[in-house]
């Protein structure tokens, strides 16, 4: 994140790389991104959603072995004076250790054992990512792009099962989007994981890069998948990631414009989907699901096309008519005021509801914590 937020080169800084070197760098980023995306998709398919014990166990073993191999390569190559990301890795490892200790007091020790192994695999995955960044310090764009592509592939595969339920999920009794993992929280979290990558893609400083416009339809797809999964954990993770991005990374106006455009389109389409019995009711007849799924597919294509046009228009305006510092400052003030008014509007709406403010809060808390 700190690298992506780095300022543009100023006078006196080293000149930009030659076209040949830039082309080689782009090819290297593409190769690394393709490898990362392929590995993540292979893990998603190989683990069979994490519900199949044998498949998930072998996947966890593979992840831990790959992480150990990359870690050894980093140690053999150099010993960095400032090991970026080490404390994050240590904190996650501490969580994995606590999970393993919970075997001692768990009601179901066997389940705690499985979760401990899963969490250690998460530690290995994070360690592998840190090792790759250390081994290829100039290829961080490939890392971010690879993660983004993998999340889009998984999100797209999940939506396809909703669009064509008769072909892919004829016996599915749940309305929540849970493919290809078989578990809606996993689908929602995977989609939320791609949101920072979309924000990076859509707010980059290079005005010659037309890939920034692709961030709009990509983010719209990911947000729609999070909403269709009905995953509260994914929504919370998405909100935390977006808030941290806007708070810590420059070019906030571009990020807010991207979130507003893609979020508005995805929210409208999700609201329509929630009103369709074939998409929001458990154990709905297959014929009803199939018809609603086809309608969802056409509307999704329209949404992606509109967001692509919006992205191109925003990118064109940013290139040809960039905002002056005064205009940016005014727009920033308006955005801050609008964001500050959102919680106030929510409080007013809750106070005007049948349960009142305190009753609505207690009801929401009960629903959130009800097993």
The helicity comes to over 70%
Tally of strands? 0
Uncertain ranges: 1-16
Shape type: globular
Strand content: under 5%
Intertermini distance: 36 Å
Largest sheet: none
- Overall pLDDT confidence: 83
Q: How many separate helices?
A: 15
Oligomer designation: single chain
How large is the radius of gyration? 22 Å
Structural class: mainly alpha
- Along the chain, the helix and strand elements come as HHHHHHHHHHHHHHH
Write a structural description.
By secondary structure, this protein is mostly helical. The chain is about 75% helix and about 0% strand. The radius of gyration is 22 Å and the shape is globular. The two termini are about 35 Å apart. Mean pLDDT is about 85; it is low at about 1-15.
Keywords:
single chain; 371 residues; mainly alpha; 15 helices; disordered N terminus
Topology:
Blueprint: H1 19-46, H2 53-77, H3 86-101, H4 109-135, H5 140-163, H6 165-168, H7 184-193, H8 195-202, H9 215-228, H10 232-248, H11 252-274, H12 277-280, H13 286-320, H14 325-352, H15 356-369
Helix pairs in contact: 1-5, 2-4, 3-4, 5-7, 5-8, 5-9, 5-13, 7-9, 7-10, 8-9, 9-11, 9-13, 11-13, 14-15
Give the structure's gist in a few sentences:
The chain has 371 residues and is mostly helical. It is built from 15 helices and no strands. The longest helix has 35 residues, at 286-320.
């Amino acid at each position: 994140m700190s690298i992506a937020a780095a300022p543009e080169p100023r006078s006196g800084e080293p000149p930009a790389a030659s076209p040949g070197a830039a082309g080689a760098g782009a090819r290297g980023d593409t190769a690394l991104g393709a490898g990362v995306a392929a590995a993540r998709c292979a893990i998603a398919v190989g683990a069979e959603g994490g519900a199949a014990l044998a498949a998930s166990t072998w996947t966890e073993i593979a992840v831990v072995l790959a992480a150990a191999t990359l870690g050894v390569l980093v140690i053999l190559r150099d010993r960095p004076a400032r090991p970026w990301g080490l404390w994050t890795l240590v904190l996650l490892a501490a969580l994995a250790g606590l999970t393993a200790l919970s075997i001692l007091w768990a009601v179901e020790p066997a389940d705690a054992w499985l979760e401990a192994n899963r969490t250690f695999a998460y530690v290995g995955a994070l360690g592998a990512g840190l090792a790759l960044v250390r081994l290829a310090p100039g290829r961080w764009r490939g890392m971010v792009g690879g993660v983004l592509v993998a999340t889009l592939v998984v999100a797209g595969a999940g939506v396809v099962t909703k669009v064509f339920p008769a072909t892919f999920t004829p016996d599915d009794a749940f309305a929540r989007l849970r493919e290809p993992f078989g578990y809606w929280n996993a689908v929602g979290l995977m989609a939320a994981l791609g949101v920072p990558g979309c924000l990076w893609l859509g707010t980059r400083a290079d005005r010659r890069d037309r890939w920034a416009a692709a961030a709009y339809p990509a983010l719209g797809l990911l947000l729609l998948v999070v909403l269709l999964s009905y995953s509260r954990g994914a929504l919370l993770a998405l909100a935390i990631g977006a808030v941290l991005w806007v708070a810590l990374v420059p070019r906030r106006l571009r990020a807010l414009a991207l979130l507003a455009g893609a979020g508005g389109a995805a929210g409208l389409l999700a609201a329509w989907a929630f009103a369709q019995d074939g998409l929001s009711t458990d154990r709905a007849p297959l014929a009803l699901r199939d018809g609603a799924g086809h309608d969802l597919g056409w509307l999704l294509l329209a949404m992606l096309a509109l967001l692509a046009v919006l992205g191109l228009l925003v990118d064109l305006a940013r290139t040809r008519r960039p905002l002056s510092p005064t205009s940016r400052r005014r727009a920033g003030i308006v955005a801050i005021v609008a964001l500050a008014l959102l919680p106030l509007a929510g409080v007013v709406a809750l106070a005007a509801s049948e349960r009142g403010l305190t009753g609505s809060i207690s009801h929401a808390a009960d629903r959130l914590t009800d097993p």
